[in-house]
Each structure stands twice: as C-alpha cells, then as structure tokens.
Specification:
- The protein is of the alpha/beta class and about 270 residues long.
- Helices cover about 55% and strands about 10% of the residues.
- The protein contains eight helices and five strands.
- It has a five-stranded mixed β-sheet, covered by helices on one side.
- Strand 4 and strand 5 form a beta hairpin.
- Helix 5 crosses helix 8 and helix 6 crosses helix 8.
- It starts with a helix and ends with a strand.
Length: about 270
C-alpha cells in the first residue's frame, strides 16, 4: 500500500511539489538533501544578483548582469558620438556663417567703392564744366582738379585714390620710389631748382597732398594753369605731362612758379619754353 501510494504521488510531486520548493514533503529522504542556510535553492536570481532595496544605494557594477554593462557602455558611446557630431555640425554652420558675413561685407565694400567713384566722377565733371567756362576768359590755377579730370578719364571705373596709385606705379615711380626715366627727363625739361628725390617724395601721395583750392592768377594767358613752389609745383607738372601723353588731358596747361610767373607750357606731354 505504501509503495502504491508512492508510485501514485511521484508524478504529483514531480509536477507540483518540487517546483514550488516544498522541501518538507521529501523530508523522509533525509536531511542531507536540505539546502544549506543562505544557499541558492534554484528559485529566483542568485544571491550575487540581489540588490539591497532599502539602503538607498544603487547596486555596484558587479551586481549588474553583463548584458546590462554592455548596454550602458553602448549608450555612453552613442551619446559621445552624438555630441561629437553635433559639435562638428555647429562648427560647420559657424564657418558658413562667417563666410557669408565676409562675402556680404566684401559686396558692400565693392558697392560703396562704385558709389564713391561715381559721385567723384560726377562732381569733377560738373566742376570741370564750370572751370572750363571760366578758363575761356581767365587763367585758372587748379592743380588737384587737373589731376582728377585726367585720372578719371584714364581710369573711369576706379576710385580716385586707386586710379592715382596705379598711375603712379606704372608711369611715375620705380619700385624703389625713385623717378622713372621719363619722369626724370620731364623734371630736367622744366628747369626748376629742386632735387629729383624731393619731387619723387611728393609724387608718392600727390593726389592727397593737393588742395582743392582754386586760384585765378593775373596772367595775360587764359586757360588752365598748374605749378607752384618746388618740389610740389614741379611734381604736379610731371604728372600733368604724363596724363597729357595718355590723352587724358587734351588741352595745353601753363606751368608757373610759386609767384605765379609763367615758366613754360605743357602740351601733349612735352615742356615748351617761350
């Protein structure tokens, strides 16, 4: 009867009792099969994976399953890569913004230069018409105006400063700042008491050294007059002759000294003595 009951209960124990951990139901087999105190009896996570719940502390990495550590590492790597990508995009955007600002400023500068050149040209044209009418009846000494008229005709698309700078480099001065051969010869033809080095120094920034002031010397000649005290007066005469040679000043100009006495006539780039 006992054996029969055992045989009948064995399937029940295998199916229900043992998985539920009812160890007291098999106590008849001996205490040697009881799990030791604190030992894992096969149900739930192993003790090494248990995390203290009420201490307020998070589990140490050793208490986290290996797949959890890998997942956290991947999250950190992904976040680092995302930060690097965002930083690269922001740097790219900043560079593009800087390039755009530079291009806009460059465009504004070019437009401003064109506007200045146009206004200078219009002002000179109106003034020249007025002075030309006056020169038909009297002598008009206007050193700066003559250079402005000649330079604007010689380089119509450039500002006055740029036009004179290019003109000076190509026609008047060598790279070392001394007079070019043609300029030196013209200075000799003017026959004034001045040093070539002093005239070259005046020619370097002549357009900004000249006054806009207009003089009306008492001369028997009419027309435009240039000159003045050396070395500035002869420097103007040298520049006027070169502009005449280029066809930018198609009229004669009387050259005078510092006392407004006539010394010569500048015609088609040559110095003509009386």
């Amino acid at each position: 009867m006992k054996a029969c009951c055992t045989l009948v209960l064995t399937p029940y124990l295998a199916r229900y009792a043992l998985p539920l951990g009812f160890n007291n139901m098999i106590a008849s087999r001996g205490t040697q099969h009881r799990p030791a105190a604190g030992a894992w009896h096969g149900f739930g996570p192993p003790p090494s994976f248990q995390v203290r719940k009420n201490s307020g502390e998070r589990g140490s990495p050793s208490c986290i399953p290996r797949h959890g550590l890998l997942q956290r590492a991947l999250m950190v790597l992904n976040r680092t890569q995302l930060d690097a990508d965002v930083a690269a995009v922001m740097e790219y955007i900043s560079e593009k913004d800087l390039e755009r600002v530079v291009l806009e400023k460059d465009l504004e500068r070019k437009i401003l230069e064109k506007d200045i050149a146009y206004l200078e040209k219009e002002l000179t044209r109106v003034q020249h018409e007025k002075l030309q009418a006056q020169a038909a009846h009297s002598a008009v000494l206007c050193n700066r105006h003559l250079l402005e008229v000649g330079l604007q005709k010689n380089s119509p698309k450039k500002s006055l400063s740029r036009a004179y700078l290019d003109f000076c480099r190509t026609e008047l001065l060598d790279a070392d700042g001394s007079l070019k051969g043609t300029a030196k010869q013209l200075l000799q033809d003017l026959a004034v008491d001045t040093k070539p080095a002093d005239v070259a120094k005046e020619l370097k920034d002549l357009i900004h050294e000249l006054s806009k002031e207009i003089h009306y010397p008492q001369l028997k000649e009419t027309g435009f007059v240039c000159g003045g005290r050396p070395p500035l007066g002869p420097a103007v005469a040298v520049a006027v002759c070169h502009l005449q040679s280029a066809g930018s000043l198609p009229f004669n100009v009387t050259f005078v000294d510092g006392d407004f006495r006539k010394l010569s006539v500048l015609s088609q780039g040559r110095v003509i003595k009386d």
